[in-house]
Request: fold
Amino acid sequence: MFYGFSGKILRIDLTNKKVTFEKKDELFYRKYYGGACLAAYYLLKELPKGIDPFSENNLLIFSTSPITGVNCPGTALHNVVTKSPLTNSIGESTTPGFFGPEIKKAGFDAIIIKGKAKEPSYIYIKDSKIEIRNASNIWGKLTSEAYDILINNKDTKNSRIALIGPAGENLVRYSSIVNDNLFISSRCGVGAVMGSKNLKAVCVSGTGDIKAYDNNKLDSLSKYFRKNYLTNPLNKSQYGPASNAGYLKSMSDQGMVSAKNFHTSTFSGAENIDGFAITEKYNPENVNCNNCYGGCKKILKGTEKIGANNRFGLIELESLAASVYNLLIDDLDAAVKIWNIICDYGLDGTSLGIVLSYAIECFENNLINKNDTGNIELKWGDHESIIKIIKKIIYRKDIGNILAEGVKKASEEIKDSSEYAMHVKGLEIPLHEPRVKQMLGLGYAVSPIGPYYTVVEHDTDFDFSASQLFMDKVSPLTVYERLNAENLDYKKVRMFYLLQPAFSMLDALCGCIFAFSPVRFFNFGHLVEIVNATTGWESSLFEIWKLGEKRINMYRLFAAREGIDIEADILPPRLFKPIEEGPKKGVIINKEEFIKARKLYYKLAGWDEKGIPAYQKLLELGLLEFI
Ligand code: SF4
Reply:
């Protein structure tokens, strides 16, 4: 008997309607800890090199870690992992809520889905009863409509439900999966892969317990969190009415969030659409994830007055920055409506925003015109025309058919437009400005799954004006020295090398970045205590930091075999030019310094000159079998 896991993986082949159960021993779980590394193991072992992400042989994996669902805050997450249709590398979306814990209650550590159903289908899981059911009554429906139909069905009324919307059905490459209306697996096109399998929904309910080794210890850690977590300034502001969307205006004032497709890093209209402005009008109520008190999600009240469904909660910071602020939209109700569309149609708000700003630049520069857009004039800040284009993307009409492919592929279709395509490896870049957070910029470039804002804790948390609390929290990683955020010298590369696995281990363990260090209430030591209280193992910060490193290297190996290496580890040319306006006008990433930093990082990471994990590193991490 081992704790934290059931030892059982559910495998579903939609082509043959075949359901099997796979068992793994404790050593397998100790080595990979479930979660992201378990998923990477199957993708490396079973996906033929070069397969189309929309091929029926691609795997769509919902995986959990030992700590998923235990009685402790910050443990409500699961990973969705697949070969991404945007990057052709591994795509991952780590998601809070209740869906992951429910997979564990049903008795599984992961669900691995392969094949393609002959007709629109959904998967029904109730403990060990697994069925592939016809979904023709919910195919084509919005996520809210499909959810209501399923939740009112006697079989699925107690299920946790992961759903795609029309965007995923139409294979918009940056489609999301919406869990229980409120929790979104947004990035890397995981919803498009689900759509390619003719799979509308996965409904899970379980009656089992999640067995932990020491429930008393978990209980005391949970009580400790509950009593004290609001002493952490970031947890406190996230618990407050505006959640992380409340940072937008201050980030804009400091020039830290890009706008107008990375031309500027400030926008005077930010205060009109900031989380505080939205919540002042729509009076939110806090919602917690499974066994947590963080209160990060907010349900707005009164949005039906503007025709928006209130079930999707307050717009998340990343989507607000990309799909509203970036487009210079300063209309609060338009922000709420755009978020409603993102959730109801199942899109990734970050990629969508970058695609739209790319399209506006193409229009401004006469690379596309009204003949392409269906007579729509595309302009910064014009939310009505922008909403019309979003609908065209979802249904692949007119220019929407090209924009649905993401900016990389679109820029290969629309002549001379590549300078407007803000992506790395095909994944659209989040709006946290990498020129003023240059360690983050390096992370955007070298991340094997493409740029995401949690690739590393941001530079500004460790610069000269940062809280001493944050410096203290990263000291166990031997990061002691404050460094200038707008710098990428050798000291910054060392900081990146040490901090990157600290976020990666959270992704690997399905730990919530809003609960744990580098800068949140729970320290690294608490994370180790939670892992040990759950599993009964004697783990350590060393072991889980190495787990973070393992995840990066497994993903990197997958990328390398797809031909993705140093050539793709580069930022778009615009980011090597100065910021054009605002308080950070003139700030630039020096390209030579970046190239030097990348080379040094490869050396520290144990990778060869092309950025491929070297034999010694794979030996050290126990990954030689994947060469
Ligand atoms: S900290 Fe927030 S997002 Fe994370 S698990 Fe808790 S409530 Fe959910």
About this structure: The first helix runs from residue 26 to 32.
